[in-house]
Amino acid sequence: MDRRQMESAIAGVVRCLGASLKNLGLYPTTHPLVRTPVEKCHLELAPFFADRAELALTVSDGTLVLEGVPIFQLTSSLELFMARLGAIGLPAVIFERGVSVEDIELFVRFLHETKEQGLPIPEIKSRLARWGVTHIRVTATDEEEEDDFSLAREIYGNALNVVVRALKDVRNGKTPDGAESDRAVREMSGMVSRNRDAMLALTLIKNFDEYTYNHSVNVSVLSLAVAETLGLSETERIGVGVAGLLHDVGKTQLALDLIRKPGTLTVEEFEEIKKHPEEGFAILGKMTHIQESTRAVVREHHMRFDRTGYPRPEPEYRVNPYSHVIAVADCYDALTTMRSYQKARTPLQALEIMKKLSGKSLDPDLVELMERSLGIYPVGTMVRLSTMEVGVVTGTPDGGKGEPKVAILFDRSGNPLAAPQGVDLKEPDPSSGRPRRMILGTVNPLMHPPVSMSGILQAVSV
Length: 462
Ligand SMILES: [Fe+2]
Ligand SMILES: [Fe+2]
What we know:
Elements: H1 3-24, H2 32-45, E1 54-60, E2 63-66, E3 69-71, H3 76-88, E4 92-96, H4 101-113, H5 121-131, E5 136-137, H6 142-171, H7 178-194, H8 196-201, H9 211-229, H10 234-246, H11 256-259, H12 267-273, H13 276-286, H14 292-300, H15 321-335, H16 347-357, H17 364-374, E6 382-385, E7 390-395, E8 405-410, E9 416-423, E10 439-442, H18 453-461
Antiparallel strand pairs: 1-2, 1-4, 2-3, 4-5, 6-7, 6-10, 7-8, 8-9
Helix pairs in contact: 1-2, 1-3, 1-4, 2-4, 6-7, 6-9, 7-9, 7-10, 9-10, 9-15, 9-17, 10-14, 13-14, 14-15, 15-16, 16-17
């Protein structure tokens, strides 16, 4: 196929998709006017896969782009198709070799029935997976995902610097720059939408000495993930994320040795700690670019779901629901962090503990949502495979269905590998055709030498 033939063939494909989409608004799914264009589209796609494994269509500035070259043969059905992609927030449609008539049909129905605008990519991916669409993707190839890890690291590092600067400013009696926090959170929010795993994986980097800094960024990232699963608007998500980033900013008013004190606090010391939400509220009040609700959330982040925390709310006081989002993220990050007086829990153990707190100090709906946002095996969980090898989860499956990504760290005899080895759990065993490796369950990470999650991620993503 030369370029012109390709262009007109692709225009044909899109025209068919558009026609089917348009007719879905008028006729039932089984009607020939809906079904026939889908079949035609399937036929038109076939020649492309003679010499390629996938075909990528992207929409850029309202123009349909095929493999980097814009297509201008516009028709009304083509325009309708693009308008739907744009409205839902689909950046691209990638047809893979092996795409079936059913895939196309379901995809068209997805475009027709999805009424929300500007959905985040992970949400689109998970819905398509739920609908059972298998050979049509909406973003990024694996190579691009590798880049996401470096990008996520850069964004995380930047947010960390913002927190360090903000706390230093407060300590020096200066008001931190709110625009900086706002910008850092916007970047993280964008990255959470683009590749949640890449961003969430970084929350497992625990730096004991710099606990407050990493903790602040982690709580922000975790809150952003929950906020996205909740389907909050962008402004609300940013507000929640900034609250996460600055929730403990009031602790800078406390003596450093009090913040770092191992073990139990005396009554007087605890009274001091209890002041930090109000201190934070006061600091945020002086900063620019801070939403009013963000301030409230910082003041309320220890009030607890059952209102038994501090500062103790009056009976008629209405707690901002997003304060409970920060509380859940705060709890998860604290539990999964090793401190001098507490060993780090695994992500699953942390979720178990949080489920016990559900309905008491934590909002039960949010605990459940948190679990869903993190996947069944959250990134960082150590797992034993059917081969008796031990690995660590490095990524969750799209939409929570299917197998997570795993890197093997120890062979079947328990000896550490020279380098972590990323494995595909879908890879079949040549003799039986069944998957070669399956997850048997989680293992206690304390049974194995400590591992650096960031090192592993770096090793498997290059
Ligand atoms: Fe706090
Ligand atoms: Fe905290």
